[in-house]
Amino acid sequence: MRSFKLHKLFLFAVLVSDAAVIAGSFFLAWWLRFGSGLLAFEPPAPPLNAYLKVPLFSVLASLLVFNYLGLYQRRWAVVGSGDPSRIFRGVVTATALVFAVGFLYRSFSYSRLVLGLMAGLNVVFLVFVRRTLNLFQLYLRKRGVGVLRVVVL
Questions:
Q1: Which residue, 22, 91, 24, is CA-closest to 59?
Q2: Less Cβ around it within 10 Å: N or C end of the chain?
Q3: pLDDT range class, residue 55, cuts 50, 70, 90
């Protein structure tokens, strides 16, 4: 497989995994807050369907912020490096955008704790998933996948 095609494939894998982690972190945070019984709240719990706009906007905002921070750039032989400090900055910036839009959108009051939990889970899971993808990319390169062999005379 050519190096350029492999680069595009891994870029797509990083984008899809980032979107899945961000959306999954939101649903896990909602469940931790309202469904698990671990955190106290005054019943009844707000309906999940009222929150369904949040993960969509959060995924969009996060992917745009991550792209702006260069998290989808190719570094050496690895696509989508898992630099924890840049992931943290990206998650904080995207969460601030979600908070700001949630503040302006006043038809429903969103739980700030859910958004805070989502941000924390995003950092942990994004670092883990990106590191796993990076190790897989390096493993494939060691096996010769995506490597162009040349002879210099």
A1: 22
A2: C
A3: confident
